Amino acid sequence: MEDKRILVTGGAGFIGSNLVHYLLGKAEKELGMTISRVVNLDKLTYAGNRSSLVKLESDLRHVFVQGDIQNSELVAYLLREHGINAIMHLAAESHVDRSIDSPEEFIMTNFVGTFRLLDAARIHHKERLAAGVDDFRFLHVSTDEVYGSLGPHDPAFSETTPYSPNSPYSASKAGSDHLARAYVHTFQLPVVTTNCSNNYGPFQFPEKLMPLMIQKVLRGEKLPVYGDGSNVRDWLYVEDHCRGLTLAMLRGKVGETYNIGGKCEMKNIDVVHALIAAVNAERSDLKRDAKELITFVKDRPGHDRRYAIDCSKIGHELGWEPLETFDSGMRKTVRWYLDNEAWIGEIERKYQLQRLGQS
Ligand SMILES: NC(=O)c1ccc[n+]([C@@H]2O[C@H](COP(=O)([O-])OP(=O)(O)OC[C@H]3O[C@@H](n4cnc5c(N)ncnc54)[C@H](O)[C@@H]3O)[C@@H](O)[C@H]2O)c1
Questions:
Q1: What's the rounded Cα separation, in Å, for the pair 245 and 315?
Q2: Which of 124, 285, 313, 325 has CA atoms 20 to 30 A from the CA of 155?
């Protein structure tokens, strides 16, 4: 059975923390592998939270390191010291609105940081090959936003859709995808890339659509929806994504890209209505009809109209399918946020403190 010693970057963020839980929880049984080490390298920006990892404190396979992927020396040390044979690279600046307000950090982490990580991986892989070990994989985690925006009747994004990024976020991710591709072709670094649609689930920073709306419904605050709410996204429950990432890392073909999606296109306004219904189903004590709180606000500049993803390749080649429907995933998500108000409270307090610290 394959034994993996994995460096996860960004493992204190939303998808990263879910991934680390998955790797040290269900992955071994579901995917027939052993995992003897998960080194979790995270800078702990505003989006990274140690509190998302408390349940792993007694798991000796998990080693948390606070640090920056741009620090090549630190990365080289971790790769060597822990005998890493797979990198799952998720660390990123990930919020589109923030990339419009201050793009530089996106270029530094998403592009320069990915370059430094790829280069440290290149040297590490070469050293392992020289020692007769050829088991290394680099999983580069990217987004469907690199493909641009679709019209209402356009076919869904496939792995051969030309890149057309529209925001500094998606441009920085597109740049990093090209670097990953170049490292396969120029240096034969065994990279596999995934491009995924919108995730939802536990441990998501409360600035993103679902946790934001859940909190606002609970507090009876206005529910801000961009434009007329008709922008369309494909939605995937985060644990399904984590299983897809682990499969792609284990069994994906080197140099290939796999699109991952939830087969679930929805207008933002319909997502908000579904959330309101799911919160109401859990909390019958909420008196107010939250639909009255929906407020349409000025659209984000350059807001992409529609994303849709054709994920048939990962289905055929690796046998991956999303297990949650939107309805089941949404109910799990709402219940998780209701059961974990302390987690939200801690993040909100920390975020306020950081904002004050910057002003
Ligand atoms: N959230 C989604 O719906 C989605 C969809 C498709 C792809 N992705 C991709 O998945 C990855 C994870 O997304 P997320 O939503 O979990 O992001 P997130 O913002 O919740 O987490 C990012 C994590 O990276 C860490 N980080 C940031 N800069 C770093 C640096 N320089 N060095 C080390 N750590 C750093 C942060 O502290 C944080 O813990 C990203 O690469 C993103 O582009 C996300």
A1: 13
A2: 325
Its pTM stands at 0.96
Q: Is the pLDDT of residue 357 over 50?
A: no
Q: Which residues of 136-162 are buried (b: 16+ CB within 10 A; e: fewer)?
A: bbbbbbbbbbbbbbbeeeeebbebebe
| Pocket around ligand 1 at a 6 A CB cut-off | 9-10, 12-16, 41-45, 47-48, 68-70, 90-94, 109, 113, 141, 143, 173, 196, 198-199, 205
pLDDT at 356: 46
CA-nearest residue for atom 12, ligand 1, is 90
Number of independent structural domains in the chain? 1
Q: What range does the domain containing 104 cover? A: 3-197+238-261+304-323
Quote the tokens at residue 128: 């392992």
Within 67-167, where are the H helices? Answer: 72-81, 96-101, 104-106, 114-130
| Measured distance CA(257)–CA(303) in Å, rounded | 25
Q: What is the CATH number of the domain that holds 24?
A: 3.40.50.720
Q: What is the Cα–Cα distance from 5 to 82, expressed in whole angstroms?
A: 7
353 domain-assigned:
no
